[in-house]
Amino acid sequence: MNNNATVQHGGHIQVASDDSYFVKHWGYHDRTLPCTNDPGSCAYLDAIYWMHDVSMLYTFIMWAVIGGILAIVVLYRVLAPRPGPVPTKSAREAEGQRRGQSSAWYRASRAIQSSVRRWLLPERFVGLFGHTTSLQVLILMIILAYLLIFSLVGIVYKTWITPVKGTTNLFNQRSGIGGFADRVGALAYALTPFTVALGSRESMLTILTGLPYQSFNFLHRWTGRIILVQSALHTFGWTLIEANFYKPQPEVYQEFIKQTYIIWGCVALVFICFLSVFSLPVVARYTGHEFFRKAHYVAAGLYFGACWAHWSRLACWMIASLGIWGLDRGLRFLRTALIHTGHLHPSKGFGFHSAQSSLQYFDDEDGGVVRLEFQHNHDTWAVGQHFFLTFPALSIWQSHPLTVASVPAAHPAIPHHTYIVRARRGETGRLKTLALSHAASPNPETTPIVLSGPYGAPLLPSPSSPAEPTNILAIAGGTGISLTLPLALAATSLPSTAAIDFVWVIRRASSTQWIASELETLKRRAAQGKVDLKIHLYITRESPSQTATETATEFPAATPEHEGKDIKKACESSSSLSSLSSSANFTTTYLPSHRPSLHAIVTSFLETRANAEYRTRVIASGPACMGHDLRSAVAASNDGAKVWKNDRRWDVELEWDDRMG
């Protein structure tokens, strides 16, 4: 906002007299009436105050629209049609029962959702928007169009030439640019709490919509960039006015730029520029994700304060932003406190107790993998959820989102955590070094871990609230197995007629050692026939002969002091190789020169495996390119016409794990 409307405008444009009275305008200086200036100045003041009032109205309308959309989402979640009961009769009776029990309302709802997915699930303009769905891009386009319209509508497009007091040859040029600059500034203020809410881990939006917090990261980034553009337009507009349109120069601009609220506005612009630049993917990768997170928190708080100091009459938006930001941080600390202080330790009593984890390192050509395992007494999580883990032995200032690769234990059993972590540079590289030091120690060692969570949407219904069974195609690439492994273990723990395919794409056969025991459990369940489970491994950097050769030559002759360890490793590797032998429900495919076709995998599952009685869910985690291909494949597989005819398997949902947003 620009104080000229009252200090400049009010001081040398608005002239008070004994007959003057003041009219309050929310978020702005009081208006002095009646106007005793020249006709041009009075007309300009009428326009600037009218535009300001309209701007305030538009900010409230924007939040009314946001609230209305959220209310509609909540209402739909409450009133959404539910499927009929699962048929249990003979095949002929079941077919008639299936066709009769799905209401037209339910089939119409699911058919519409399937058709929408077909068009709005694929990624578009990846170079600009990154790996996100067309739906997210469409929502962003709607937001941009809305803000553009409301930035331009209600502006007085007129220019007034007014004399400068005390001169005869100088004139001020007054126009609607000031009203436009204030409009985009007001919308930037009003958009700030929404942007903060979109980026919150403890998100009210998650509670209202049922979507995990990471689903909002794309819009959080782009609304932040919108605020940057609005701030730049606001600054440019008033700089143009004060440095060019008002006379005499440079006296007017020099007086303008020295004012305290203008200085704070410049500070706020610096902070929003910092937030935007350092959140760019290329910059975040260069500086490190942890620096980005911590710097983001600090700079955001300073930005709120600078905006408050710049224009305190609209501090309500900054107070709301600080409230959301503070609540998010507070709830994170509360979660951690409840996990680590909420239970009596059998030997240490009450107090803060970190979990103690073992570390097991698996070497490979891509940097290696660390498997963490520990037990800790706290409330359980749901399959598919993740925790933020801090390793105090490495740093108390960093935390990493890691999906739990184990199935949560039912109360009163103590939960057992398993994590599969790819060792890269930074914190995970130091974790690898720590694991190697533990392996070299003659005595078993553990490392302390601090947890915060759980976060994310459950992938399976809780036992207390059973839901409609679904066909499940679980696809993982590399360490993405952390998501699909517990899903497959939990989904196959009870008999079911729904089809479940477990697909794991890895570079080398040795990667199966990461989850050797769990993989054997799945193979045993598939062989028993109580569940319709098939397991498919795709190995993309080795051929069968390479796997056998590497297994035979991996370990040289052992020295006496390492003989026991080497024999153990050789046995484990040999066991891993033998576990790749194909069977009726377990196949291993070597693709040494290319990746498997995810489109073919999805299509084959739907056509030959999926039970037509149930909807289909593709649940996956892996590299970004895998998500890109799966979005395209799943979108092409959705068929609203078949869903309307009650062939539910073509109602295909994709749940892609994207914790980094």
Note down, in words, how this protein is organized.
By secondary structure, the chain is α/β, with parallel strands linked by helices. It has 3 domains: 3-76 and 122-334, no CATH class; 355-455, Elongation Factor Tu (Ef-tu), domain 3, CATH 2.40.30; 470-656, Rossmann fold (3-Layer(aba) Sandwich), CATH 3.40.50. The protein has helices at 8-13, 39-79, 91-101, 104-120, 126-129, 134-152, 177-198, 204-209, 217-245, 251-257, 260-277, 281-287, 289-310, 315-341, 427-440, 481-491, 516-528, 544-553, 563-578, 598-609, 624-637, 640-644; strands at 21-23, 31-33, 159-163, 171-175, 355-362, 369-375, 386-390, 400-403, 416-422, 447-455, 470-477, 496-506, 531-539, 586-590, 615-621, 652-656. The strands form 4 sheets. The chain has a 6-stranded antiparallel beta sheet with strand order 8-7-10-5-6-9. Strands 14-13-12-11-15-16 form a 6-stranded parallel beta sheet, with helices on both faces. Helix 7 (177-198) runs parallel beside helix 14 (315-341) and helix 11 (260-277) packs antiparallel against helix 13 (289-310). The longest helix has 41 residues, at 39-79. The radius of gyration is 31 Å and the shape is elongated.
